[in-house]
Amino acid sequence: MKRSGTLLNFGFMPSAKNSTSRNLSRESVSPGNPRRAKVQTNGEETEVSFDLSTDEKQTFLQFRHSGWRESTDFQGHCSMRWAVFLLSLKDVLERGKGRPYPYDLEVHYR
Known about the structure:
This protein is an alpha+beta fold. The chain is built from 1 helix and 5 strands.
């Protein structure tokens, strides 16, 4: 397990005209707590968190992208892109094949 503060830089749609890059900084990694990371996006710092729980039949993933200063078109775009990503991840786990970019659902941003 990596320590808090690890920085990860990644890009979205590398071949696209409006390609973007994000920095994630891991904030907490203690067992039993949600995994949290700070995200720098368009000059705004937000937070993503993931938490797993189970019952006797299934596993649940609770995901949150929070800390937005205001509701914008870009926030809605990010929300939709996370949904597309998580549905593809579900397909990988359940069917053995996901829909990674560029084969995923196209979501346009103004």
